[in-house]
Amino acid sequence: MSKKDESVDMDRYFSDSEYRKKIIAERNRKSAENSSIGKTIWIVTISFFFLVAAIGTGYLYYLYQGLPSIQELENPRTAVASEVRSRDGVVLDRFFIENRTYVSIDNISPNAINALVATEDHRFFNHWGIDSQSLMRLPYYWVRQRFHGASTISQQLARNLYRNIGFDVSVTRKLREMITAVQIENNYTKREIIEMYLNTVEFSNSAFGIESASRTHYGKPASDLTVSEAATLIGQLRAVYAYNPRLFPERAKQRRNVVLGQMALHNFISDEVFRNLREEDIVLDYNPPSRSGRESRYFGEYIRQQVQGWAEENGYDLFADGLVIYTTIDSRLQRHADSAVREQLEGFQRIFEREWTTAGGSYMNRLWQEYPGFLRSFIRETDRYRNAFSKLNTNQESVVFQHLEADEAFVDSLKRARTKLQASFTAIDPSNGHVLAWVGGADYGAQQFDHVHQARRQAGSTFKPFVYAVAIDNGYMPHHRFSKYPVSFIEQTGRMWSPKDPSIPAGPEMVPLREALARSLNNVTVRLLPEIAGAPGTNRVADLQPAARMIRDMAANLGIDMSRSPAYPSIALGTAEVTLLELVSAYTTFANQGVHIKPIAITRIEDKEGNILVEYFPEYSQEAISPETAYMMVDMMRGVIRGGVNYHGTGVRLRNQFNVQQDVAGKTGTTQNSADNWFVAMMPHIVMGSWVGGEDRRIRFPTNSPSSIGQGARTALPIVGQFISNVTSDPEAPWSTEGFSPPPGFVMPDIPLASDETDTRRGRIGW
Fold first, then answer.
1. Which SS3 state, helix, strand or coil, does residue 511 take?
2. Among 302, 572, 578, 759, which residue's Cβ finds the most Cβ atoms within 10 Å?
3. ∠ CA(578), CA(581), CA(586), 5° rounding?
4. Which residue blocks in 519-607 are alpha helix, DSSP H?
5. Can you name the residues that pair with 665 across neighbouring β-strands?
6. For 641-682, what is each residue's pLDDT tens digit?
7. Among 306, 328, 343, where does a domain finish?
8. What is the mean pLDDT of the chain?
9. What is the rounded distance in angstroms from the CA atom of residue 453 to the CA atom of residue 435?
10. Domain total for the chain?
């Protein structure tokens, strides 16, 4: 018997059957209890095992759910800025969520790569995604409260590239990061990992990727980074704000020196180089990311409007897919155009303000006296005016004006803001419609309204060539003469329409069309209308309608949208509203022997790998006017620049002031109220145009000013003149001095007629 049975009375056990049954029952009960406990323990053990297995399986499932898919690993998606490039490869503008330009490792300075490896992961080329030596030392560091992350470059790339991994401090995030790092190492080479890393990380000043960081901080590509510059940028990666060299230069210098020290420690640079570089101050060539690579914002916004619809239809994100949009712009011409607009406009603004201000008077006091309604109309458009009624608890406008006009600072600020001048410039190649330069205004940051293609203003005298083109098409020649004196016409209401020149030039009464166009004579232009309409000698406005329709149709054939311009006879004097882009495009027809080509600004769009997605080609139209008419118009507009034997053309300043001696034709334009000034110049290889006027279209130039600033020849022409002067002085800029050539076999019918001589072909000289 066992020791458990030692307390049993053995004699009684064998002699007393009842006692024996009792002992056996007790033994069976205890055995059953022991068996039940064993089963319970076994069940609990098995259950615990399955519970742990289930939790582990669930955690592993949860862990792997947060990992990037195979497709994501093979095709990592990073928001890359789309670029607008000139035809010579210069970045003009960028569209982005994150200011990032992706570049290959071959276009990244080795200094940046060395600085990264030395600082972030000096065993990078020897591990498989996880640095086991660093991991083994982690407990030691943690005990000493030195919280080293032990993340390799591959691990950092994992959390930068795949945002679902997250950035929280947890075991789960760390495990996901490590697993993904191993997967990255299995899918990519070390060079590819370095390339992806430097293209994805964020640097200071909202620059994403090494290329954008280099251009933002140093105004150069990443391939040109020096050792010190590379160390400064890589040093930012620990804390992009704390080590921002623009905000905290001393702190950034200390961090840069840490990076340089690591580079020396791991033999990327010598100790001597380290000692020399650590004493240098940080020198930046800072370009704000909002402007870096965004030198042509007006043109860039025009391109965005042209491309946005195509991108959406074809499943591309213009702000994240890294598209490369090649344009027709030449960066050298664009640079000179920007300079001409900016510099000339600064001078115009000073003169404009001075001539509206009397000696000792307040800011532009003459303007407010001459146009007393302007100031209150400006006030009505402000938020302060709209909010003043409730603020002052009144519905009386007079009370609001009294309150606001008493605030001298507010009134002065409003006056200065609303009297800003604006200017625009564009240039087009007449042979193919390529837009070569585009400046929509002085400062996109201050005024986003584009005066090249958005602003519609009255064309003034720049519209007259379309009138003369109709006359030439109807048999009139440059030598035909008309009276220089005004003429009046009777409207249906009985009123008189009496357009006239401000003054009548000296000389003979009868003026050739060539001279009339060169001197921009309204009286001669108006006298052409009944001749064009086939109603010579008429005195009724109604009889001029056919001529007005012919002029409108001519302008439309040359590319101007005339849908908003009714065919009134006043259209001959430039009352139609046009954009600068339309006007310059129309003039290209004259320079292109009568063939109009719709302006084109984009040549092709590529994806970020360089695959061509779509190409664009010029839209050639049929002959809008004959080559002979086109050449005669060019020849007549030469007179605007050259003048004649006994007269000066309105554009003579192009030669006298800017010394433009090559073959050029053009036309100046000024609206009746001196609000808009224009000038268009033509050469065989380029047609250029400029507009100058008030940012607010109510603003106008003073009449009879000493400087004549309110004339196209005094404001718009100098912008074109400076552009030509700058470009011809630049040996790298594309330019031609070739002159216009007449059509084959054409001889200019420029035979002068005496004032009393009859034109036998037409039967009259003019009237």
1. strand
2. 578
3. 80
4. 522-532, 545-557, 580-591
5. 682
6. 998 888 899 999 999 999 999 999 999 999 988 889 999 999
7. 306
8. 86
9. 12
10. 3
Which among 47, 65, 83 is the end of a domain?
Answer: 65
Radius of gyration for the chain, computed over Cα atoms and rounded to the nearest angstrom: 41
What pLDDT is attached to residue 329?
97
pLDDT digits (tens, 9 = 90+) for 292-346: 556 788 999 999 999 999 999 999 999 889 999 999 999 999 999 999 999 999 9
709 plus 663 within the same structural domain: yes
H/E element holding 64?
Answer: helix 17-65
Taking the C-alpha atoms of residue 711 and residue 650, their distance in angstroms, rounded to an integer, is: 10
22-31, 192-201, 231-240: least confident range: 22-31
Q: How far is CA 134 from its chain centroid? A: 47
For residues 208-217, give the mean pLDDT.
Answer: 92
Q: What pLDDT does residue 530 have?
A: 94
The tens digit of pLDDT for each residue in 584-617 reads 999 999 999 999 999 999 999 999 889 999 999 9
Q: Provide the whole-model pTM.
A: 0.76
Q: Is there a domain that residue 756 lies in?
A: no
**Is residue 49 one of the residues assigned to a domain?**
yes
Token match 């027709």: residue?
328
> What are 36's two structure tokens?
């039940």
Phi, psi at residue 563, to the nearest 5°?
A: -65, -25
Tokens encoding 97: 């969520």
Structural domain that includes position 60: 3-65
Give the burial class of 390: count Cβ atoms within 10 A of its Cβ; 0-12 exposed, 13-18 middle, 19 or more buried: exposed
| Number of C-beta neighbours around residue 200 at 10 A | 21
Angstrom distance (rounded) from CA 520 to CA 649: 8
Asked if residue 430 has pLDDT above 80, the reply is yes
What integer pLDDT is reported at residue 757 of this predicted model?
40
Q: Taking the CB of residue 137, how many other CB atoms lie within 10 A of it? A: 14
Q: Is residue 316 part of a domain?
A: no
Residue 36 sits in the same domain as residue 183:
no
With H, G, I as helix, E, B as strand and everything else as coil, classify residue 420.
coil
CA distance from start to end of the chain: 152
Name 85's bridge partners: 91, 326
Residue keyed to tokens 């379309």: 466
